[in-house]
Specification:
The chain has 5 helices and no strands. The chain has 177 residues and is mainly alpha-helical. The protein has a domain at 6-80.
Length: 177
């Protein structure tokens, strides 16, 4: 702490003998030693209190960090970072088939949609084919009698065949009895 050489200590001892005197010098040295011990104890006590405060402060920091970790919402943090404007969340929450293609009512059934006015017919608009038709909707809109190899599909024509042309009779033939 103090940088005192032997020569400096000897000078202090000579001055102490001259000033205090040889008779009272041992008591003065004892009192100085007790004062130094008392200062050291007070310094050690202060240091221990300071260390305790630091430990408590660090423990509070550690407690706060543990509480933050326990209350950390990983899912929410990822959502906030990946989906800042909420577009992905809306995409998953909305029904993609809500505005999808719906089959036209079969012939002979009445549509449940209100007509604009019977006097002015609405021009027919070709319906755009949807990109995906759910199997449940496709099963409902399937024809009752599927087209066979001899019959054309609804609204279609028969493909040209490579073999001899077969003609179906116009009227069913009945056997002669």
């Amino acid at each position: 702490m103090f940088d005192l050489a032997w020569s400096e200590l000897a000078l202090v001892a000579v001055v102490a003998v001259v000033v205090i005197g040889p008779k009272d010098l041992p008591d003065a040295i004892r009192n100085i030693a007790k004062g130094i011990q008392k200062l050291r104890r007070m310094a050690a006590e202060f240091q221990s209190h300071a260390d305790e405060l630091v430990r408590e402060a660090k423990l509070e920091d550690v407690r706060d960090q543990i509480r933050d970790i326990r209350n950390f919402d990983l899912k929410g943090a990822i959502e906030r970072n990946l989906d800042e404007d909420g577009q992905i969340r809306r995409t998953f929450n909305e029904d993609p088939l809500k505005d999808a293609w719906k089959p036209e009512p079969a012939a002979g059934t009445v549509a449940s949609t209100p007509a604009a006015s019977p006097a002015t017919p609405k021009p027919a608009e070709p319906a755009a084919a949807p990109a995906f038709i759910p199997p449940s909707v496709a099963a409902e809109s399937a024809p009752a009698h599927p087209a066979g190899p001899d019959q054309p599909a609804e609204g279609g024509t028969t493909p040209p065949s490579s073999g001899p042309a077969q003609t179906a009779p116009d009227k069913p033939t009945t056997p002669n009895v």
